[in-house]
Amino acid sequence: MWDLVFPPGPPDLIADMFSAAVVADAVRPYDADLAQSVETCRDWRHGYHRVFRGMTALAISAPEVSLGMAGAGLDSVRHMLRFSVGRTVTTLDAVDMDAQAEAVNLETGEIAGAAAAVERLEVPWRGQLLSEGSLRSRLAEWQADGILEPDFVAAVERVIDHPEWLRLPGFQAIVIGAGAELGPLRPLLAWGADVLAVDRPGATRWARLRAAAEAGAGVLRYPIDGEPGVDIARSFPALARWITTHSTGRPVLGLYAELPGAAGVRLAAASDVLAETLLRHRPDAALALLGSPTDTYAVPASVVAAARDRLVHRGFRGSAQDLLHRIAPNSLYRLNYARPIFDSEGGAWGLFDNLPALAGPDYALAQRLPRWRAVRAHAAGHPVSFTVAPPAWTRSLTRENGWRTAAYRAASRFGIEIFDPATARTLLAAKLVADLFSGDPTPTNPEALFATGAAHGGLWRQPFAPRSLLAPAAVSGTIAAVLHKLQ
């Protein structure tokens, strides 16, 4: 049995040691002091946050830095991760993918949907089904409220104008992490697209996927290794071969699979191997990814200006917020963008920081690996669709009943919208479609891939750092819930 494993080390420390080594390798050629601070950090689990902020600022400084860091980071992952086959263990970069793929033959399942294809873009929102004029009006309101970036709105409007794009004629979508709630699988099937779906085995998971395929109008094909689905981290050589064998149209590889903790790093690395293999075999392939709203990004000056403008127009409420900030300057109402960062051409950017304090370096690195792959793929000439997703009421969140749920309930009072998953995934899938057919101008800096066309839900354009709003929002949401119960 194959397996993707960390190098030898203390079981409770090796994941942190691995992430620190990868980050140090990525930044060392461009900031030796930052690399040394990683290597000498005595508490990497708490010190990583500052480093990932610094790494984001460093990446925006120049295109060659962004591209070089991406290459060095991914090469480090390849060199340090181990590929285990029985008693044989080798580095990931030494694996003969073709030879390993021949050892396992994945079968293929297929489901053809029986419904008629949805022939125009329809977005479910608060019990309504928005389309054409009503959808354009809602998009305009989201843009005016700072919920969606103008480029995102323009992309969705192009799909409204070209509904023939919805079924992805000429393309074949490959969805890694098919069950992801914000992934494009369900909308694409409803629109009649041809999809290769990959996800872990599991009866409940695949029952949902089969139901989505049967209710749609497209064709769903999926790998079978004794049962539907495969473990990507354990089967990526055979999976890479299965994907290249079954790609009938121009492939669009979407990476949406995630897991918590150290397993998430292994999964991100395996997904990256799939991406590298497909992009190497198919020069015409496109890459599609979603960025987490809980990460760090360099954002353009126009976003920073909008956030500062809102700071000026707060009225009486602003005085109370300023007072609370003076009482607890590090934890309450801290400014979203304290100081600008500059690129090599003198352009000013803001540094958006929403990495969760307790997420850990495993989470941060798992989010960074696909961003590095996006930078390298774009530099190699592959179309890349990367969209920062909005916060959403996912299943994991709705099962909670703690401070985060309470904060989400009060988010609208702070200029942030928490999306229903059905709304978010339909909008995000439409953005993907627009990117594939119309493309975007090549950014002067690769890091602009992550800022263009974001659907951040208002997090970027409100004046305060999101983490500094958690406590006020949680208190506000809890009070609102208590009052609602009393009524």
Q: Provide the CATH architecture of the domain at 107-296 and 359-463.
A: 3-Layer(aba) Sandwich
The number of E-state strands comes to: 15
Question: Which structural class should the secondary elements be placed in?
Answer: alpha/beta
CATH fold assignment of the domain at 107-296 and 359-463: Rossmann fold
Q: Output the CATH class name of the domain at 107-296 and 359-463.
A: Alpha Beta
Number of helices: 18
Shape: globular
Distance between the termini: 59 Å
**Largest sheet data:** 7 strands, mixed
Description:
The chain is α/β, with parallel strands linked by helices and 487 residues long. It has a domain at 107-296 and 359-463: 3-Layer(aba) Sandwich (Rossmann fold). Helices cover 48% and strands 15% of the residues. Helix 11 links the parallel strand 10 and strand 11. 47% of the residues are buried. The mean pLDDT is 90.
List keywords for this structure.
15% strand, alpha/beta, 18 helices, 487 residues
Helices, strands, pairings?
Elements: E1 2-5, H1 14-27, H2 32-39, H3 44-60, H4 63-80, E2 82-85, E3 88-91, H5 97-101, E4 107-112, E5 122-125, E6 128-131, H6 132-144, H7 150-161, E7 171-176, H8 185-191, E8 194-198, H9 203-215, E9 219-224, H10 232-246, E10 250-255, H11 261-281, E11 286-291, E12 296-300, H12 301-312, H13 316-327, E13 341-342, E14 348-353, H14 361-379, E15 384-388, H15 395-398, H16 403-409, H17 421-438, H18 470-486
Parallel strand pairs: 7-8, 7-10, 8-9, 10-11, 11-15
Antiparallel strand pairs: 1-2, 2-3, 4-9, 5-6, 12-14, 13-14
Helix pairs in contact: 1-2, 1-3, 1-4, 4-14, 6-7, 7-17, 10-11, 11-14, 16-18
